[in-house]
Amino acid sequence: MATVEQRTEPLGSRIKALREAMDMSLRDLAERSGVSAPMLSQVERGETSPTLQVATKIAGGLELRLSQLLRLDEGDSVSIVRCEARRKGPTTVTGHSYELLSPPLPGQRAELSRHTLAPGAATGGAGDPPVHEPGSRETALVEAGAVTLVCDNERFALGTGDCVTFDADLQHHFENPGKEDAIVLAVVSAGLRRS
Amino acid sequence: MATVEQRTEPLGSRIKALREAMDMSLRDLAERSGVSAPMLSQVERGETSPTLQVATKIAGGLELRLSQLLRLDEGDSVSIVRCEARRKGPTTVTGHSYELLSPPLPGQRAELSRHTLAPGAATGGAGDPPVHEPGSRETALVEAGAVTLVCDNERFALGTGDCVTFDADLQHHFENPGKEDAIVLAVVSAGLRRS
DNA sequence: TACAGCCGTACGTGATAACGTACAAACGTA
DNA sequence: TACGTTTGTACGTTATCACGTACGGCTGTA
């Protein structure tokens, strides 16, 4: 019977490396995680595919969330986007323009964009599409001017230098109530497909 | 026998919601993922805890990485860090100071920091601690001046407005070769514990 | 009213994940 | 050298995961 040769090895190696980095034996991790030592051994060597239940326990024993543990085997290298090579975002609303600063690669963890808002303008209308994918989270920094964040029908006033973090899958947009241009730097992290 | 009432429901609901959002039936997802429809049904209802193998397949059928799928059940709400409430980072090297812009909460996906580099200064020495946790990834935007990124012994020259993304668990630091202060905005995403 | 088609779920079976125990090798100490 | 301890792994058993099949409930069409 030709065993399917499933790609579970890298995770096993990762677990082993992390465990050893924390200077723990299999039995130490077993006690901390509530998973038996032999099971851990098998998982580390890729001889078995753990259940989400035990995988979660193992991650917990390593003081990690399972999502963090799994995320370790992705992406690579260095990627530069030159100032002049920034991708302009489509201008759908007058008074709002933006550029994408992070590289257009799949598997990015965070997308950086720089938004310019004219006085009185807003990013997207009241209840428009500018809602991000489920599970995504946004961090925004006001570089210049002042803006109002409207998130889930609540309003938050933000001045220059203020920084806000919120669930980006909620209905939200920024407004510029001032007399001058406002510049907002936005970091959207952990988005999904299916817009 | 009192079944353990394991907390696997939220993931199941998530899967169901995503599947329905993509307008797919259990059998559709079964074909796309290679997991049987009855299995999917049980997972969605939290009646069983899938193997990492099949969980990966399910995520694949939803066009997601498993880490992304799992990440959906964390965090919440809005969190503001006022300009004057920024936490100053410890100044260990002369000529380098920085502030933390993102909130000091656990479970953050991305940490935003703003670094000021005096002429000739560098963030951390040559091969010093400023290496982030395994698996973390960093996106840096040069706001002012020019800097040189040294990542894994390779050098990258960056001008104002340039943006770079790289694996932050590699040996790296920034240098300011210019005559004026340089300001770098850094986004570190997906870090782990255990520095 | 039928019938064809799909939906999600209950059932029974084989595969395997996860446990507890027991073992051989490596280490430190007396 | 001999012993106690700890390391990681092999073994056999039980729990449960994952499959294929089959069923009742809906929806739309003839």
Describe the overall structure:
- The structure is a homodimer of 195-residue chains.
- Chain A is an alpha+beta fold and 195 residues long.
- Chain A folds into two domains: 9-71, 434 Repressor (Amino-terminal Domain) (Orthogonal Bundle), CATH 1.10.260.40; 83-189, Jelly Rolls, CATH 2.60.120.
- Chain A is built from five helices and ten strands, in the order H-H-H-H-H-E-E-E-E-E-E-E-E-E-E.
- In chain A, the strands form two sheets. Chain A has a six-stranded antiparallel β-sheet with strand order 2-3-4-10-5-8, with no helix packed on it.
- In chain A, helix 2 packs across helix 3 (37-44).
- Chain A is elongated and about 65 Å long.
- Chains A and B meet through helix 1, helix 4, helix 5, strand 1 and strand 5 of A and helix 1, helix 4, helix 5, strand 1 and strand 5 of B.
- Chain A binds a DNA duplex (30 and 30 nucleotides) through residues 25-27, 35-39, 41-42, 45, 48-51, 54.
The ordered string of helix (H) and strand (E) elements of chain A is HHHHHEEEEEEEEEE
**CATH level 1 name of the largest domain in chain A:** Mainly Beta
Q: Quick one: overall form of chain A?
A: elongated
Q: What's the total helix number of chain A?
A: 5
Give a count of the beta strands of chain A, DSSP E runs of length 2 or more. Answer: 10
pLDDT averaged residue by residue of chain A: 72
User: Would you tell me which CATH topology of the largest domain in chain A applies?
Assistant: Jelly Rolls
| Quaternary structure classification | homodimer
| Beta-strand share of residues of chain A | 25-35%
The biggest chain-chain interface is:
A-B, 68 and 68 residues
Q: Helicity of chain A, in percent? A: 10-25%
Termini distance of chain A?
Answer: 43 Å
Provide the domain count of chain A. 2
Low-pLDDT parts of chain A are: 1-8, 74-78, 126-130, 191-195
For CATH, the homologous superfamily of the largest domain in chain A is named as: Jelly Rolls
**What structural class is derived from the secondary structure elements of chain A?**
alpha+beta
Strand order of the largest sheet of chain A: 2-3-4-10-5-8
CATH second-level architecture of the largest domain in chain A: Sandwich
Major beta-sheet overview of chain A: 6 strands, antiparallel
